[in-house]
Amino acid sequence: MVGEELLRVVDVWKSYGTVVALRGVNMVVRRGEVVALLGDNGAGKSTLIKIISGYLRPDRGQLIFEGKPVRFKSPLDAKALGIEVVHQDLAVILDLPVYRNIFLTHEVTNKLGFLKDDIMKEEAKKALDAIGITMPDVDVKVESLSGGLRQAVAVARATYFAKKLLLMDEPTANLNLVEALEVIDYIRKFVKERNAGVIFVTHNMIHAFAAADRIYFIDKGRILFERRKDELSSPDDLEMLIEKIVEEREKEERYEYQKA
Ligand SMILES: Nc1ncnc2c1ncn2[C@@H]1O[C@H](COP(=O)(O)OP(=O)(O)OP(=O)(O)O)[C@@H](O)[C@H]1O
Fold first, then answer.
1. For the chain, how many structural domains are there in total?
2. What is the CA(221)–ligand 1 centre distance, in A?
3. Which of 7, 157, 186, 188 is at 20 to 30 A from 131, Cα to Cα?
4. What is the CATH number of the domain that holds 61?
């Protein structure tokens, strides 16, 4: 079930010097929803993710989180609201056990700085459970796991710390289709179980179609369309729609150029 609004992006603009990366982006993410942000190289996807996660500030426009306007000075401000971002390489450290990977850089320690392994193990199991993975022994090193399970550990880490909104910048870019669909399955479980929101960035139509409840297509810094997945019949249908819209946009641009 898709629920109330979590994030609203309102007319966001961002330039790098003379390069205009975002031109008035509007977007909504609701609880319990995976939103795919689909677009080619240079479309502005990473810039938008960096703004929502507090790494960059917009030149113009606003972010509304849970109904309130927010201004992030750094990623810490976004994290404090339960917004986490994960990048392309869902990196795990092979030589460390599963539970230590899940708590990487978030280690739980006592006052003297000693690791609280029992707590981390217990919580690591819960983190895996939440995405539908039962791993009786979280003490095993990640190197002994299959490729799919290694990805599961990385996704469990991201989803455990993202309490409300998880931003995934091309998490399936380096995976084959079977692995990508597995990771997508974990992400969907997390969203439905926790009633959280996900923005799933990709340039792959098949991955977007499999992952999303809704799809935004961004091109040259503009959102060219938004569709619910149930309005589309297949990834091919999505591709055809994109081709048509890009063609129309190019025609308009040529017309405007000739007029000028
Ligand atoms: N630090 C920067 N300095 C100058 N221009 C930048 C910078 N970062 C991005 N750009 C430009 O802004 C535009 C949008 O880039 P962005 O990385 O957001 O796109 P993207 O859709 O994430 O592409 P990709 O899939 O290749 O990462 C591009 O024209 C890019 O060249």
1. 1
2. 10
3. 7
4. 3.40.50.300
Give pLDDT tens digits for 44-82: 999 999 999 999 999 999 999 999 999 999 999 998 999
Residue 254 confidence (pLDDT): 83
Range of 210's domain? 5-259
Ligand 1 binding pocket includes 39 (Cβ within 6 Å): yes
**Burial of 233 (C-beta count, 10 Å sphere; 0-12/13-18/19+):** exposed
Interval 170-228: pLDDT, tens: 888 777 888 788 889 888 988 988 899 999 999 999 999 999 999 999 999 999 999 99
Instruction: Work out which ligand 1 atom sits closest to the CA atom of 170.
Output: 25
- Report the run of H or E that residue 228 belongs to, with start and end: strand 222-228
Provide the greatest CA pair distance for the chain.
Answer: 71
- Provide the 3-class DSSP secondary structure of residue 205: helix
Residue 86 has pLDDT above 70, yes or no: yes
Helices (H), 195-234: 205-211
Q: How far is the CA of 43 from the centre of ligand 1 (A)?
A: 7
- CA nearest ligand 1 atom 4, residue: 16
For ligand 1, say whether the CB of 18 is within 6 Å of any of its atoms. no
Verify whether ligand 1 is closer than 6 Å to residue 114 (CB atom): no
Percentage, residues of the chain above pLDDT 90: 62
